[in-house]
Amino acid sequence: MTVPNVTMTHCQREAKCQWCEIMIEASNPLVTVFFWNRGGPEHKGFNVKKYYHPECWVAQGLDYLKMNPYVPYIRKPKLELSKEQSKLRYNILKRKAAIDQRKRRLNGSPDNTMAMALLDTKIAELMIEIAPIGGIPKKWLTPSN
Ligand SMILES: [Zn+2]
User: Fold this and answer.
1) Is this prediction's pTM over 0.70?
2) Which pLDDT belongs to residue 35?
């Protein structure tokens, strides 16, 4: 695993810029990127230092971003419910569990098609009830059996 570490200092000794390949002269601002490779049981760790003009560091960063387009990070809505809502939600979850149990008992017999359909209708109603209080649990939407 490589851990990069970036610092900006005054250049003490001339160093070649990784980006434009022009020498960075002493006393000029210098960006040092220090890669620390921890190594592992199979290979020894090693350190790599790379030098950049500050503007070249920015340029290579922007170039990298261009190659790796922006992907929006979608945050999951947090489940923040009042005490009353939590109780309601818990109650709906319990009712759903009871229906699931009944469905499991009916399962397999063709005579029970009608009863199964009725239970599915009840589940659909519970979905409508639970949606505004924390959303429909993912488990409900993926058939379990
Ligand atoms: Zn440069």
Assistant:
1) no
2) 79
> Which residues have C-beta within 8 Å of that of residue 137, sequence separation ≥ 6?
93, 130
Residue 2: the pLDDT is 55
Segment (H or E) for 3: strand 2-10
Question: Which of 81, 18, 82 has the alpha carbon at shortest distance from 53?
Answer: 18
Task: Name residue, tokens 């009725």.
Answer: 118
CA of 11 from ligand 1 middle (Å) equals: 13
* 68 backbone dihedrals φ, ψ, rounded to 5°: -120, 85
66 CA distance to ligand 1 middle (Å): 19
Q: How far is the CA of 68 from the centre of ligand 1 (A)?
A: 22
Q: What is the DSSP letter of 27?
A: T
